[in-house]
User: Which sequence fits this backbone?
């Protein structure tokens, strides 16, 4: 029998209404993953009250757990359906591997990416999102979600299985890590040197990207004072990926690290400091292109190169001119630090980049593109950290850190899904990821006369979302 609208309007999240003999009773309801049917299954719980036409909802006196929420007449809709459209496969896998937590993971990732939300505010964003209609039984109160994050952090094996379920295109880049500040007492938090040239309590985050598919595949948390080759070996073993190329930063190079990479049969590309004694600048003093090995084109720019053993020196002349102009301007603005004499000494290094690599069969052009892929990933990750405010965490336990990083990993995956679509559709010159999120979030669902209606949408936003396979009408 159909439940009348005057009854429906009293339904609260995490409940269901049952018609028993013409009377309407309210029960707790939750969902679990049915492994056989490969879908969620509704589970009814305790009776918590009844609904009458005269008095509305009447709570059962012995039941004190229901949190009655004020009705919300307008809910964010566009970003919600964009998330579901782009992350459909991921949602299915999350439900498979985390049958008890999958809805909370999705809602938390949504709140993180769209609102940079801390744990305590996730419930607020859930209530004002259409996810509260899609997943009405999700428990996202701050204490519950905090406990869920801790529990999730204990499930590294399920997290690993989720990683293996991610589809990839087979070109992997293993980045040696980025730092996440933490001063809240987690065991993984150790004082370590970071790219900001400071020693701070931090955690190192190592990750693997699918370069071709523009998506993250794997992460691993390490103590802030660890940057060892062994961590690469263990990470590759856990991830199950064997073709990854390790692209470290300039600070990673040392004879010991190179020897250990070689002994471990790991492929690597490592940029060198311009002051490294491994680099032969002689062909550039003075510049004689006859002495160089050749050139190729990258992003409509000519890149010259010179190879000597495992070291390749690249020269970008446009970058050289830009660096020369910058240095000469500094002579005028900061003569105490920059002089023409020093300019003459340094001029042969302007516009150069040198790398050491054991990818013997790769051409200089491939090596250059691989190295630049790290730069692109780092730039995007920096943008993500700024957007998500994920450059620090206050989790007090390692389990909390693990669970929180997995939620952020899901948010990062969504970020990259949007980025990859913009890249594929050649829309990056017009829209950023944040532009897409903000435009989508302006689309609302309005509750009018007990029915939900989609708000007005600009033609530009409608066309943009349609390009993501997410038409809104």
Assistant:
């Amino acid at each position: 029998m159909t439940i009348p609208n005057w009854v429906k309007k009293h339904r609260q999240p995490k409940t269901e209404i049952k018609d028993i003999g013409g009377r309407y009773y309210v029960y707790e309801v939750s969902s679990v993953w049915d492994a056989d049917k490969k879908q969620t299954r509704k589970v009814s719980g305790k009776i918590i009250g009844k609904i009458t036409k005269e008095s509305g909802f009447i709570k059962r006196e012995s039941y004190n757990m229901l949190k009655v929420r004020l009705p919300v007449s307008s809910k964010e809709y566009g970003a919600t359906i964009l998330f579901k459209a782009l992350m459909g496969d991921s949602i299915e896998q999350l439900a498979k591997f985390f049958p008890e937590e999958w809805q909370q993971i999705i809602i938390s990732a949504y709140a993180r990416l769209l609102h940079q939300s801390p744990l305590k505010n996730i419930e607020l964003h859930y209530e004002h999102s259409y996810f509260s209609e899609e997943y009405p039984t999700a428990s996202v109160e701050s204490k519950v979600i905090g406990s869920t994050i801790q529990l999730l952090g204990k499930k590294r094996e399920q997290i690993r299985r989720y990683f293996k379920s991610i589809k990839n295109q087979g070109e992997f880049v293993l980045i040696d890590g980025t730092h996440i500040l933490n001063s809240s007492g987690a065991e993984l938090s150790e004082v370590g040197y970071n790219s900001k040239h400071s020693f701070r309590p931090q955690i190192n985050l190592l990750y693997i990207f699918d370069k071709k598919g523009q998506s993250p595949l794997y992460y691993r948390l390490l103590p802030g004072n660890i940057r060892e080759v062994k961590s690469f070996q263990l990470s590759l073993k856990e991830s199950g990926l064997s073709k990854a190329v390790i692209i470290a930063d300039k600070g990673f190079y040392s004879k010991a690290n190179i020897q250990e990479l070689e002994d471990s049969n790991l492929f690597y590309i490592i940029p060198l400091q311009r002051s490294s004694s491994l680099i032969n600048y002689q062909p550039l003093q003075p510049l004689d292109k006859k002495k160089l090995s050749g050139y190729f084109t990258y992003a409509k720019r000519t890149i010259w190169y010179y190879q000597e053993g495992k070291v390749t020196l690249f020269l970008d002349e446009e970058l050289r001119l830009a660096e020369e102009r910058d240095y000469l301007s500094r002579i005028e603005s900061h003569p105490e630090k920059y002089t023409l004499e020093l300019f003459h000494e340094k001029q042969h290094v302007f516009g150069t980049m040198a790398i050491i690599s054991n990818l013997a069969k790769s051409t200089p052009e491939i090596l250059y593109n691989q190295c630049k892929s790290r730069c692109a990933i780092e730039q995007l990750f920096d943008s993500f950290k700024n957007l998500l405010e994920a450059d620090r965490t206050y989790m007090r336990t390692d389990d909390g850190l693990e669970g929180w990083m997995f939620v952020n990993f899901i948010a990062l995956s969504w970020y990259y899904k949007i980025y990859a679509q913009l890249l594929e559709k050649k829309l990056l010159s017009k829209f950023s990821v944040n532009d897409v999120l903000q435009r989508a979030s302006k689309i609302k669902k309005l509750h009018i006369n007990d029915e939900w209606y989609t708000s007005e949408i600009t033609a530009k936003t409608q066309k943009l979302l349609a390009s993501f396979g997410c038409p809104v009408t």
